[in-house]
Amino acid sequence: MTVAVARPAGGRTEPRRRGHPALRVASLYVPTLVVVVALVFALPRAMPGDPLSVFDDPDSAVFVSDADSRQRLLDYYGLDDPLGEQFARYVSRVARGDLGWSIARHAPVSELIGQHLPWTLLLMGTSLALAAVASFVAGVASAWRRGRPADRGLLVSLTAVNAVPEYAIAAVLLIVFAVVFPVFPLYGARSPFSDARGAAAVADVAEHLVLPAGALTLSLLGTKFLLVRNTVLSSLGQDYMLLARAKGLPERALKYRHAGRNALLPFVTVLGIQAGFAAGGSVFVESVFSYPGMGTLILRAVDARDYPVLEASFLVLAVVVLVVNLAVDLLYARLDPRVAAE
C-alpha cells in the first residue's frame, strides 16, 4: 500500500540551506565596515587646518613663505584635490592593504601602526580580561549576599568608580602609586635604556602595565558588575534554584553553575559592547601614562593633522572592535544554539 505524502504549499520538503553560521554572522559586519571606512576618512578632515598648515605658521621652523611652494606641496600630497578623488584614492589604498605615508613623520603608516598597536592590544586585552573575571565574580558574590555590608560596599564603590572618567582614574593611580608611594613606574611601557631579556623583560613590561591596566579595568567594572548582580538576583527565587537547594548542592555550585550561568549570555553581550569603550578609554589612559600605544600615536597625529596616520589608526582600532564583537557573537551562538538556528 502506497501512502501519499502531502507537500507544503511551496513544493519543497527539505529545509533551506542558509550557509555556515559563522559566515552568516560575519556577513552582517560588512555594511558596518563600509560605514567605518567612510567615517575614518571624514573625521580627520572635519578638524580645522590640514597637515600642511604648519608651513603657514611664521613661528614654525618649517615655515614656507612662498605660496607657489606651498601649492606644490598640496599637489604632491593630493590635499588640494576634490574630496571625491581623495576618497577614491583612499579606498583604493585600503583595498590593497596600503595604509599610506605619514606626512608629519615621513615614515610608512603601517610601520608606525606596527610599533604602537601591540601595546594597545596588550593593554586592552589585559583590562577586558581582568574586568570580565572581577565583575562576574563580584556580581555573583554581591547578589548572593544581598543587603549585607559586602553587597552594599561593592554596590556603592563600583557604581561610584563607574561614574569617574578613565583619565581621572588614571591620574589618581599615577599620583598615589607612582608619585606619593613610588611603587610602580611613572610612565612608559619599558624601562629606558633597559637591556633586560627573557623573564626580566616580561617582568619589566608587566610592572609598567599595572597602573594603565588598573585604570582601564576599574573603568570597565561597574556596568558588567551591575548586570551580573541584577540578573543573579532575579534568578534566586526561580524553581530551578529551589530544586538545586533541595538536592543539597554545595554553595559554590549554586552560585556559579546555576545562578551565575543565568547571567552568562547578557554578560557576554555587554563584554563585546565594552570592547569599543576599552578602545576609546585606552587613548586617554595611554596619554596619562605616556604609554606607547595607539593613543599616543593618535594624539601626535592630531597635533600634526596627519591625515594618513589618523585614518589608519581609527580604521585599525575600529577593525579590532569589530573582530572582538564578531568573536563575541560567535561565542554567543555556541552558548545559545537558538541564535545559530535563526
Which features characterize this protein?
disordered N terminus; single chain; MetI-like fold; 70% helix; 342 residues; 0% strand; mainly alpha
Explain what the structure shows.
The protein has 342 residues and is mainly alpha-helical. It has two domains: 21-95, no CATH class; 115-341, MetI-like fold (Orthogonal Bundle), CATH 1.10.3720. The protein has helices spanning 21-27, 29-45, 67-77, 83-95, 109-144, 149-162, 166-180, 199-235, 239-246, 251-262, 264-289, 294-304, 307-335, 337-341. The longest helix is centred in the middle third of the chain and has 37 residues, at 199-235. It is globular. It starts with 20 loop residues before the first helix and ends with a helix. The model is unreliable at 1-7 and 13-17 (pLDDT under 50).
What would you call the shape? globular
Instruction: Name the CATH homologous superfamily of the largest domain.
Output: MetI-like
- Roughly how many Å is the radius of gyration? 26 Å
Structural class: mainly alpha
The number of distinct β-strands equals 0
Please name the CATH architecture of the largest domain.
Answer: Orthogonal Bundle
- Strand fraction equals under 5%
Topology of helices and strands:
Blueprint: H1 21-27, H2 29-45, H3 67-77, H4 83-95, H5 109-144, H6 149-162, H7 166-180, H8 199-235, H9 239-246, H10 251-262, H11 264-289, H12 294-304, H13 307-335, H14 337-341
